[in-house]
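Bench notes, afternoon.
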Amino acid sequence: MPRAGRRNALNKRPLFYDLTPEDLTQRMLTWGEPAYRGRQLWRGVYRQLAGGPEAITNLPHNLQHRLSEAFSFCSMKVKTTVRSTDNNTQKVLLGLTDGQSIEVVLMRYERRRTVCISTQVGCALGCVFCATGQMGFVRDLTAGEIVEQVIYFARKLARNGERLTNIVVMGMGEPFLNYQATIQAIDTLNNPDGFNFGARRFTISTIGLTPMIERFTQERRQVNLAVSLHAATDELRQQLLPINRRYPLESLIPACRNYVEQTGRRITFEWALIHQVNDGLDQAEALADLIQGLNCHINIIPLNPTNGYAGETTPQQQVKTFYHYLTGRKIHCTIRMRRGISINAGCGQLVTERKADTKPSIV
């Protein structure tokens, strides 16, 4: 039985967020209801952020009841919530219907409210400095489970008169190893008849799966793409990111160049600075040579600590030296503002207690 099928067997009612608008319209017609009832439900859930059919007052009572019996509108249970001392970062551990868990993070900035969502329970790629990779892979999330993370925080913010401004697909898991569900979730949230979240306010982060970058390029989406680079030579990159053995820089960088050429969009490269590993001017020079002429942005991220990796964060002065070398080479870059480190909510720090018992196929 497929992975999604096993999860649906555990949950007696299908998850509403797994439906597409076409699925919903077809269900209404099958029930003998007019097609516009599906649009009313869709708008009620995604535009009004209704918790279920009973809160959508323009639906007939008998249809509200039937929908509540047919679908689940809440598949996740909050297990723990932790906040940073400045209250700008909030991390939530969400329990899933099969007993697994995921972590999701909300970050508040002066003008932005950004949610960092997960696409898998665990991760199979084993990047040495990433806590999620250290825990291994358990399973993919469905499109609905990805969507529900966003809706959870959208409702919380709405109660305070706030709205989400950005969605980053940078939580647990490799989004491009769960490509179909990830893209369906984005399409659901982007749908103008519902949540209507602009495509350019999404960012997908991938470790650099060349075939999936090529597929993403062909689809000509307006969603932002970030690639976790972290090293500018194959020798060092494969020590940090084992997937580099399969997709080395000689295939990855041309795919990134093609993405920029075909879409006209700038690409972001993420670089976690690790003291005396990839923070020297030799790597900065190799990086500048590697991406010469490419419309890109370098996101410099001082390493966030994890229990499974002994590497240390680059001292602030060396971070600035690395940054100034790149800007001196006319490369756009920023040093990421660190958020949620004290509550293990930073980049690469998300993890749950459950350990891996399966492995997915790698592209």
